[in-house]
Design a protein that fits this description.
Blueprint (H helix, E strand, L loop, with lengths): L7 E3 L2 E3 L3 E3 L21 E3 L16 E4 L2 E4 L7 H15 L4 E5 L4 H11 L7 E5 L9 H5 L2 H14 L4 E6 L7 H9 L4 E4 L3 E4 L1 E2 L4 E2 L5 E5 L4 H12 L6 E4 L5 H10 L3 E4 L9 H12 L8
Parallel strand pairs: 3-4, 3-16, 4-7, 7-8, 8-9, 9-10, 10-15, 15-16
Antiparallel strand pairs: 1-2, 5-6, 6-14, 11-14, 12-13
Helix pairs in contact: 2-4, 4-5, 6-7, 7-8
This protein binds flavin mononucleotide.
Length: about 300
């Protein structure tokens, strides 16, 4: 693809375009290699990894809603050793621009993961998942507390100095802005907003909860207005770039995020039923340019 320059710079990283795949729905990207050419995307955020492999949650994991998707995957992942030796090299070999998503089951786990990642080649951008609603330890429990956000982001910037550090925030708070300010103050190069919104479902016929953990994370078109409002507020509160994610299911949806103040966007759930969408967004941006942010 050619056309208008649509590069975006976040911290030390230059992405060839501002359209990324969100962490999770496409796994490590490799699962989608026969469906779309992920090398054309500005970045592919891999499924969140933890230091050790995790099997994820038991019971139902996915449930569609009329305008979204509930998931309770619970950070199932191959662990950092298998990610670094198998998944990451395979992503690079296929021409993808990997953004490594990291999570932890606690502080010690987090430190060990950062230590393992430091000095590792093959990627120059990291997204800290401070926002998973589907685990008991780490995840959203950390990401709801501005002091813990500051602690986690600061440590990543210290240990992974030189790499682009993105902080992915949860919308499951009264006000997301203090979290964004904490991340910025601690050295984040960009804010990613948002992760899924807490929801639940009930199987009426069997009088049973759908998910073993009661609640799950809602994504897809239903959450776009929430994500858009978060991006709007954050973009007017911090100096660093904001990456918009949540409910993008059309080219126009993506354009809304740029108008709200995002420097880049991530597509998640829509990849399940419209895998070509990220490519169409890139084509539109190359044709018409990146929309200017609205004033206000
Ligand atoms: C099946 C599934 C798995 C996900 N796994 C992760 C994950 O591992 N790490 C993460 O930061 N976000 C994860 N997410 C959240 C998405 O990256 C994204 O923030 C959210 O779904 C909102 O965007 P969307 O509406 O475009 O899907 C997951 C979402 C879904 C639907």
């Amino acid at each position: 693809m050619s056309g208008r320059g649509v590069e975006v710079t976040i911290g030390s990283a230059v992405f060839k375009n501002p359209v990324f795949l969100a962490s999770g729905p496409a796994g490590y990207g490799l699962e989608y290699e026969t469906v779309i050419d992920l090398a054309v995307l500005g970045g592919v955020v891999a499924k969140t990894i933890t230091y050790k492999p995790l099997v994820g949650n038991r019971g139902a994991r996915l449930r569609e809603t009329p305008s979204g998707l509930l998931n309770s995957i619970g950070l199932e992942n191959v662990g950092c050793e298998a990610f670094l030796s198998e998944k990451l090299p395979a992503m690079v070999e296929r021409g993808m621009r990997p953004i490594v998503s990291i999570g932890a089951e606690g502080w010690e786990d987090y430190e060990r993961l950062l230590e393992r990642l430091s000095g590792t080649e093959g990627f120059d951008a990291v997204e800290i998942n401070l926002s998973c609603p589907n685990v008991d330890i780490g995840g959203m429990a950390v990401g709801r507390d501005p002091e813990l956000v500051e602690k986690y982001v600061r440590r990543a910037s210290e240990v992974l100095g030189g790499k682009c550090i993105l902080a992915k925030l949860t919308p499951n708070v009264e006000d997301i802005v203090p979290l964004a300010l904490s991340a910025e103050g601690a050295g984040a190069d960009g804010i990613v907003a948002v992760n899924t919104i807490v929801g639940m479902d009930i199987d009426v016929r069997n009088r049973k909860l759908v998910f073993d953990r009661v609640t799950a994370g809602l994504s897809g078109p239903a959450i776009l207005p929430v994500a858009l409002a978060a991006v709007w507020k954050i973009a007017r509160s911090v100096e660093i770039p904001v990456v918009g994610v949540g409910g993008i299911s059309s080219v126009d949806d993506a354009l809304k995020f740029f108008m709200a103040g995002a420097a880049a966007v991530e597509v998640g759930t829509a990849i399940f039923y419209d895998p070509e969408l990220p490519v169409r967004i890139i084509e539109r941006l190359e044709k018409d340019g990146i929309p200017e942010r609205l004033s206000g």
